[in-house]
Amino acid sequence: MKNGFVFFVGIFAALGLSWAGIVLGSNSQVGGLTGYYDDSDGQSYPLRPSGEAAAGLLVYRDLGCASCHTQQVRRPGFGSDQARAWGERQSVARDYIYQTAVQLGDFRYGPDLANLATRKPTAPDRESLMRLLYTGQGAMPAYSFLFETRKISGQASDLALKLPAGLEPRKGRQVVPTARAERLVAYLLSLGTAYDYPEARPAPHAAKEGADK
Amino acid sequence: MTTAPIQAGPTSGEWDAPAGAGAAGAPGRGPLLFLIGSALVWLVVSGVFALIASIQLHTPGFLSDCPILTHGRVRVLQETAFVYGWLGTAGPALAVWILGRLSGSPLRGTSWLGVGAAFWNAGLALGLVGIAIGDGTGTALFGLPAYVHPVMLASYAAIAIAGVLAWTGRRRGPMFAAQWYAAAALFLFPWLFSAADIMLVLAPVRGVLQAVVAGWFAQGLWTLWMAPLALAGAYYVVPRLTGKTLPNYDAASLGFWCLVFVGGWTGGRHLIGGPVPAWISTLAVVTTAMLVFHYVVVALNLRPALGAGSVLRFIAFGVGSYVLGGFVDAVTAARSVAVSTQFTTFDQAQQQLALYGGVSMLLYGTLYFAIPRIAGRAWSSADLLRGHFALAATGIALLVVSLGAAGLSQGRDLADPSVSFAAMATHMQVWLLVATGAQAILLLGNLLLAVNFLETAVLKPGSGEGVAS
Questions:
Q1: Which of A152, A85, A161 is nearest to A127 (CA)?
Q2: Helix, strand or coil for residue B132?
Q3: pLDDT digits over A125-178, tens only?
Q4: Could you tell me if A143 lies within 8 Å of chain B, comparing CB atoms?
């Protein structure tokens, strides 16, 4: 190798090719995905997240929740995702089109959250998620800085947590979620992949397309 | 330029400053030493974060009351300080120095080097504070907050100018392997980083394409920046310390082009089973297998590093880890293996094998070779150097084995739906404790290096004053 110019062009081409192949290639395949309009329901899926849920995604991201939780249910037969009741179907690209910062995650030290709010048979509600965030559980630490312990003046707040014995604050005080906690929980409760897109149905072996999307 | 002072201690050996050291390296001595010194500070900082993150895995309550030290943030802080602070500061500094030495004339553009070094460190410090208060981008290996990206890019360009000038102004004739890798790394980082910046921050792509871009970027950063930076050092140091030409050197250029052309396509191995087009991970299976060719060439070329010598030992360990890491990547890219290693600490074991065992060890070796020649003085302590090697080698081996074992246990437990997450964490407990011990050992080893550097390049008053010309 003597020619510096050829060398320069070579490494640029190498990078450009991989970019074109992977990024442009997948962009042409899933970049134009739109919501799926269901005639019988009269609306399009996935549902757009509420403003508060969209803001909660940023809380989820900045606390680094994705360092222990994934948001991708893998296809039946690939891992135990279905058996753990994380979702009845695999996650597909269309599930994420309205998420401003996709949090697929790469480490499972806690359960997958892609379908948290529509899990069967039981999905967590606001109250239990708040409690979990405040107290922690097992390997999940308590995020108590997302809550405020306030003096009760007059009537206790409707939003105050109902905590188990031993964890409740001193008498005359209450634990109230901050705005960040409210947003985070709103986001968690917006996570659902219950709607069955045609591409998410496991394809029979003869018809290959769609199976691995 | 007079002969550099040589401290001929009782154990003087290959790390002593050679006669005539600094003839080409003298200009830019200050900025280069500043870059390497700051890299060592970031290395220690990342070691502290690594220790905290490791403790948090087996003792979740550790520092969790502190919003700036949630596990998620500490992991990003550790990764950023390690990749951008240590590898990304020491690596380019050594690449610039190598290009300067091989160009046959003194470094030019050294004032840019100094300015770049100052702003790179300032941007990084600001970025780490930003991550701690929650401004990070949340993307792997790209965690720095958006507002420091322009500073990082501009200061990197300023640092690279000296290297590019040395490369374009080199003597006519064939380029050496060390020059290919160094020049490629200097050029490729800004392209990669700005492409990721545009697609993830300025005009974010939609939905899962973000994950595809992030995977492409992270793998590119590894194969097209960090690995070449480390290999540039190894290809430069090994022939000089062994005094022989590299065996099978004809194949070296094929090995280089294989890495550059194939490396960028391997990013899909982390997306197996995910909601992205399946051909991305299929492509990764094929390309990680093709990349084995590159690892074989590197192993063949650099096998003389296995000879004795306290600096060569770092390089030999580094080459061994680098090549082993490449083979493990090729195996775990296969779906049947990934199904049980994906989402576990096995992934982290692979990353540590590559970044610590491979890239860091190669950079340590290059650094031990380069500092006496940049500063014009021998290392102040051979014992600290030997101690560093012992601690680093032990720490890396322990870390990789413990994370790997924890990952296999985690993979088994994840596959069995009857095992709860609490039980899974209990099964991993012992190995995670070992990993914490390994992080403590690594931190101690890096402190030895930092102290040795401080005594050699900063605190020795008087000697070597005449070297800066």
A1: A161
A2: helix
A3: 999 999 999 999 888 999 999 999 999 888 888 888 888 888 888 888 999 999
A4: yes
Rounded to an integer, what distance in angstroms lies between the CA atom of residue B135 and that of residue B160? 27
Residue A7 touches chain B, beta carbons under 8 Å? yes
Task: Tell me what ipTM this predicted complex has.
Answer: 0.91
Contact B261 A17 (CB under 8 A): yes
The whole-angstrom separation of Cα B90 and Cα B108 is: 19
**How far from B224 is each of B258, B299, B315, CA to CA, in Å?**
11, 18, 20
Residues in chain B: 469
Q: What are the structural domains of chain B?
A: 29-456 (1.20.210.10)
Tokens 């990206």 belong to which residue?
Answer: B149
What is the tens place of the pLDDT at every residue in B188-216?
999 999 999 999 999 999 999 999 999 99
Question: Chain B: nearest CA to A154, how far in angstroms?
Answer: 29
Least CB-CB distance to B195: which of A19, A100, A106?
A19
Question: Does the pLDDT at position B308 exceed 80?
Answer: no
Closest residue of chain A to B426, computed from CA coordinates: A139
Measured CA to CA, the distance from residue A56 to residue A183 in angstroms comes to: 4
**Whether B188 and A15 lie within 8 Å, measured CB to CB:** yes
- Within its chain, how far is the Cα of B427 from the centroid? 31
CA distance A63 to chain B (A): 6
DSSP-assigned states of every residue in B71-84: HHHHHHHHHHIIII
Put simply, the chain B residues between 4 and 63 with a CB less than 8 A from any chain A CB are 56-57, 60-61
Residues in chain A: 213
Segment A42-64, tens digit of pLDDT? 888 999 999 999 999 999 999 99
Helices (DSSP H) in chain A: which residue ranges? 4-18, 25-30, 51-63, 126-135, 179-188
Q: Roughly what angle, to the nearest 10 degrees, separates helices B361-375 and B227-242?
A: 60
Return residues 288-317 of B near A (CB < 8 Å).
none
> Tokens at residue A192, please?
């659902």
**Whole-number pLDDT of residue B114:** 94
Q: Give the domains, in start order, of chain A with CATH numbers.
A: 36-152+159-198 (1.10.760.10)
CB contact B135 to A (< 8 Å): yes
Which residue is listed with tokens 């995702």? A81
- Helices then strands, each counted (H, E), chain B: 16, 0
Q: Is B386 on the interface with A (CB under 8 A)?
A: no
Q: How far apart are CA B356 and CA B227, in angstroms?
A: 11
Distance in angstroms (rounded) separating the CA atoms of residues B433 and B127: 30
**Ordered alpha helix ranges (H), B133-226:** 149-168, 177-197, 209-221
DSSP B376: S
Across the strands, what pairs with A177? A147
Distance of CA B190 to the CA centre of its chain: 17
